[in-house]
Write a structure and sequence with these properties.
InterPro entries: CLEC16A/TT9, CLEC16A/TT9_N. One of its GO terms (biological process) is autophagy. Pfam families: FPL. The chain is an alpha+beta fold. The chain folds into four domains: 340 residues, no CATH class; 190 residues, no CATH class; 220 residues, no CATH class; 128 residues, Pleckstrin-homology domain (PH domain)/Phosphotyrosine-binding domain (PTB) (PH-domain like). The protein is built from 42 helices and 20 strands. The protein has a five-stranded antiparallel β-sheet, with helices on one face. The chain has a four-stranded antiparallel β-sheet with strand order 17-18-20-19, covered by helices on one side. The chain has a three-stranded antiparallel β-sheet with strand order 9-10-11. The longest helix has 38 residues. The radius of gyration is 41 Å and the shape is globular.
């Protein structure tokens, strides 16, 4: 009896450490065998045996040695009690074994003909015996799930633990049977996998198995969770991982999940997530230890890769982002393993790679049509705007995954993927660039209620889709093929005559195995097909040029401008590629096929007798020039403002590339030459037009009094304070300027990711004279900044040529050297005298500084804190003697510190004074200024003077000074913003001008 107590007492009085012991694993294993043995004759008499124990145990009482569960575990070690413990339990008898078999068949994860519903997943049990059988089956199911979960916890957490037992002599001996060893000895992994893979298709095997049913999704999901836990913990011990992967048990588990159509829809909801978790842990183990690859294969198959591909490309994965992203990550991470065995298998898996390529093409095409469907409708809709923005983010994620696939470097995969992308995606997108027949264009401006037709939406979304590809795809060969298909003057009939998404062309079908698009586009890029009669004029380039001209209205211009600028600013396209695409000027003596003769190499790459000028603009530059010059100036809306910003942004990029291209041809381009470029002239003429409109709008009655305020508001919104000590952030003799605007924050770079180009979020305000003046002022300021940038670039280019002449060099740059990098266009617009003056951005004296009062107009005043609502504690006392100092452009409130000095308390520009009124000795001022103690509160300022006469004099003097300042500011505004004054004052260096005159025949 003492020996019996020594055996049982540790189980009664043990701690949580005893939860992960081999003894407990043995009990769990025996319980599992008993629970799954549903083929025994007494199954119908076990209706509530297991549930009785489960209902008594609550919460975490399983670990309490004095609970019924703990008592049961302890008594399990006694042979006498353990032998009769099942028979003493209460039972509920079922009428027949057939009812329980039917209940298990209804709970099974697989589809069956006797289940209700289209997917065979529902069942209706209406008689009492069937309901009792179903409840009994569910109780057995819950018990099996709990046992499998506990087995996994014990094996994972107790694999390295040993249990010790005390003997009469006090000696401690070590139990050499660890949990994992017992797990291996009983081959529990095969048992668990057998439970998961059981299905109605292997009923012959079911007769010899320990269990004769197809288990429910809950049991199978728990098996997968336990196996996933075992695989994840196998990384701690290589020997453990070797056993788990041996005997193909894991491979059998992975294979039994496919095909997915064998499972019911409710079963898929419970099985897919834990199964993907198993695949993810398997992929991590393979990536960490690639030498284990033979364990992941079975008969020249790779179940992990195949299962991830099948599930990731399934219809179910399209509705669950977690499953889809994880499966694609498993595939990409597997392809990135550099082990020769893995690389060899992936390279030889042609069907799998073809299926993966088709899946990516279908994903992009579905996303394209989904965005187009959301775009169709009214041009202003906040809900649709948010939906389009979410779709663009999802498109970015898909493109990033596509980049990961391209970066794997699998032989043949990248070429196949490029071929399918051009055939199934790009060809469809390019076809939708064609102008619709039913409506040539849509002009969206003041009428926000216009509904964009579907055909127009497809064209806009096509431009946006192409822009996203150019922006986010990293694979250079695909980008260059895409650029050739869109920008090259010639196109292949494969793209022009592409009729549908199935690869059928007008002149015949194309085999899916053939590579036709890639060789055709490569031949066009290399000029080999220039003399081929089968080539056609590129209609997609023509449609894009028409859009840049404004033929299809302003609504589509912005997205087309983003496409062009994305190519100009992309690092994937060097100067030679841009010349081949005829986006920038070619070399003068280049043949269409790109070959130069010896005679042409000796000739300067400038105008000859055949050329009328030194520079031949491209069609892209002509189209953009036409838009700037012919854009309707009467259509003033947020769309027009966006178009102008995009036009200015693309104009800077195009002029920069064109100047570098001409410089590469050996021409020394200076201000005189740049001023003759059509696009350069168009920018300066557009600036002159809007400056003139802005000045004329000042004469309008509603605008005349607030014109300066509108200009100040536009400047303050544009220029922001920056913290920099750079030398270029200075203006004249003034201290470091602290206000600047980066032009890259306007136009195409910012709008490239915006859904506002497809569906706007807000409506435009009503058309009024004030809004018209605001539009003209903002446009004039913007194009003035563009002109400043171009003039600064011309100076930089002029200095570059001067330095090269000083070195005596005539070498030709390739567009990638250090000299070309030094010729980058500076996009930082620093606030100059105009912005500092009219925006109130000039340097202001610090409040702690002293002001010299000699020679200034001063008025003595007082300040009573009791008369000011909400006075600050820092206000000067009543006895403080203050002075109001009025300067030509500002007035100060100072505290007198002597005869000629005063400490500045506040400085306000006269142009910020809204109104002034006197009330006896009190002067009330309404100003646009931040709060300053009790001097200015909520835009109000109150000062007290010695008598009413002095107060009246001060008010009249402030009014006259303010009116004088406003008149002077208006004259100064005309002077500073007057068009064509900056460029006309600049003259190129004399040697360069004479040299260019000789070359172009002007001397």
């Amino acid at each position: 009896m003492a020996q019996l107590l020594n055996i049982t007492m540790p189980s009664f009085l043990g701690t949580n450490r005893n939860r992960y012991t081999p003894e407990r694993l043995k009990c769990l294993y025996s319980d599992l065998l008993y629970a799954i043995d549903v083929s025994r004759e007494d199954l119908s008499r076990r209706g509530r045996v297991e549930d009785e124990w489960e209902d008594v145990i609550k919460g975490n009482n399983n670990d309490n040695p004095l609970s019924l569960h703990g008592l049961r575990r302890s008594l399990a070690t006694l042979p006498i009690i353990g032998r009769h413990r099942r028979r003493t339990s209460p039972v509920i008898r079922l009428n027949s074994r057939k009812g329980l078999d039917l209940a298990f068949r209804f709970l099974a994860a697989t589809k069956a003909p006797d289940k209700e519903g289209d997917n065979g997943g529902a069942a209706a049990l209406r008689d009492d015996d069937s309901v009792m059988a179903l409840n009994a089956a569910k109780r057995i199911e819950r018990r099996v799930v709990a046992i499998i979960r506990e087995i996994g916890e014990v094996v994972v957490n107790g694999g390295n633990t040993v249990s010790t037992n005390s003997t009469n002599n006090g000696n401690r001996m070590e139990n050499l049977t660890s949990c994992f060893e017992y797990f291996c000895e009983k081959n529990m992994l095969s048992l668990l996998v057998d439970i998961a893979k059981q299905n109605p298709g292997n009923q012959a095997k079911a007769a010899s198995a320990r269990h004769g049913v197809v288990w429910s999704p809950l049991v199978k999901a728990q098996v997968m969770q336990t196996v996933s836990l075992l695989v994840a913990s196998g990384g701690r011990n290589p020997h453990t991982l070797f056993y788990i992967l041996s005997q193909n048990a894991i491979n059998d588990l992975i294979s039994c999940m496919l095909p997915l159509h064998q499972w019911t829809d409710p079963a898929l909801e419970k099985l897919v997530h834990p199964f993907v978790d198993v695949l993810k842990n398997m992929g991590l183990q393979l990536a960490g230890t690639p030498d284990l690859f033979p364990f992941f294969t079975r008969r020249d198959t790779f179940p992990l890769f195949h299962a991830a591909l099948e599930i990731g490309t399934s219809a179910y994965a399209q509705t669950d982002s977690f499953v889809h992203i994880n499966c694609l990550s498993i595939i990409v991470n597997t392809m990135k393993i550099t082990t020769p065995q893995v690389q060899a298998w992936v390279s030889s898996a042609i069907p799998e790679l073809r299926k993966l390529s088709n899946h990516f093409c279908q994903l992009l095409l579905n996303r394209y049509y989904r965005i187009a469907d959301l775009t169709t409708g009214p041009v202003v809709d906040p809900l649709r705007n948010s939906a389009v923005e979410a779709q663009l983010l999802a498109l970015h994620d898909q493109i990033h995954v596509l980049n990961d696939v391209f970066s794997c470097g699998i032989p043949g995969l990248n070429v196949r993927l490029c071929e399918l992308l051009m055939r199934r995606v790009v060809s469809v997108v390019l076809q939708n660039l064609e102008p619709p027949r039913e409506r040539a264009f849509i002009s969206v401006g003041l009428c926000d209620l216009d509904v964009t037709p579907q055909r127009e939406c497809l064209a806009q979304v096509s431009c946006m889709f192409l822009a996203q590809l150019f922006h986010h795809v990293d694979y250079l060969p695909f980008l260059r093929m895409l650029a050739v298909a869109l920008f090259h003057p010639k196109s292949t009939p494969l793209l022009v005559n592409h009729s549908d998404r199935q690869g059928k062309l007008a002149f015949g079908p194309v085999n899916e195995e053939d590579y036709v698009f890639v060789p055709a586009l490569d031949a066009i890029a290399q000029g080999k097909g220039a003399k081929n009669d089968t080539l056609l004029d590129n209609p997609f380039r023509r449609s894009l040029l028409q859009t840049l001209r404004g033929d299809f209205g302003e609504w589509r211009f912005s997205v087309a401008a983003i496409v062009v600028e994305s190519v100009l600013e992309s690092e994937a396209f060097d100067m030679e590629t841009l010349q081949i695409l005829e986006i920038v000027p070619r070399r003068k003596k280049d043949h269409p096929d790109g070959a130069d003769t010896d005679k042409e190499e000796k000739t300067e790459a400038v105008g000859t007798a055949e050329d009328s000028c030194w520079y031949q603009p491209t069609e892209v530059e002509h189209a953009l020039t036409h838009f700037l010059l012919e854009m309707p100036k009467s259509m003033l809306s947020s769309v027009s403002k966006t178009c102008l910003e995009c036009a200015g942004s693309i104009a800077l990029s195009l002029l920069h590339k064109c100047a570098l291209s001409v410089t590469d041809n050996g021409v020394e381009v200076g201000p005189f030459q740049l001023a003759s470029m059509p696009l350069w002239q168009a920018i300066f003429q557009t600036k002159a037009t809007y400056c003139k409109e802005a000045l004329e709008s000042q004469r309008t009655l509603e605008v005349s009094d607030i014109f300066l305020e509108l200009a100040e508001f536009a400047i303050c919104n544009r220029y922001k304070k920056v913290a920099s000590s750079s030398e270029r952030l200075t203006f004249g003799s003034q201290p470091t300027a602290t206000y600047a605007c980066h032009l890259s924050q306007m136009g195409c770079p910012v709008l490239a990711e915006s859904a506002e180009l497809l569906v706007r979020k807000f409506r435009f305000l009503n058309y009024t004279d004030v809004e018209e003046a605001r539009f003209h002022i903002e446009s004039a300021i913007h194009f003035r900044a563009l002109c400043k940038t171009l003039v600064a670039f011309s100076e930089k280019l002029d200095n570059h040529h001067a330095k090269r002449q000083a070195r005596g060099g005539t070498e030709r740059s390739n567009g990638n050297d250090r000299s070309s990098a030094d010729l980058a266009m500076d996009m930082l617009d620093v606030a100059d005298e105009f912005a500092l003056t009219f925006g109130g951005l000039g340097s202001r004296p610090d409040a702690r500084m002293d002001l010299d009062l000699r020679g200034r107009m001063t008025f003595s005043c007082f300040l009573s804190t009791a008369t000011v609502s909400g006075a600050m504690p820092t206000a000067p006392p009543e006895t403080s003697k203050l002075s109001l100092v009025v300067d030509p452009t500002d007035f100060y409130v100072v505290r007198e510190r002597g005869v000629s000095l005063g400490g500045i308390l506040c400085r306000v520009g006269l142009q910020k004074v809204i109104a002034a009124a006197s009330d006896g000795q009190w002067l009330h001022l309404a100003v646009r200024h931040q709060d300053v103690g009790c001097l200015i509160k909520n835009g109000n300022m109150i000062l007290q003077f010695e008598n009413a006469g002095t107060c009246l004099i001060v008010r009249e003097y402030l009014d006259r000074s303010r009116n004088t300042v406003r008149r002077e500011l208006m004259e100064r505004f005309r002077t500073l913003i007057e068009p064509d004054t900056v460029l006309e004052q600049r003259q190129p260096r004399a040697p360069v001008r004479e040299e260019m005159a000789d070359k172009v025949g002007l001397a």
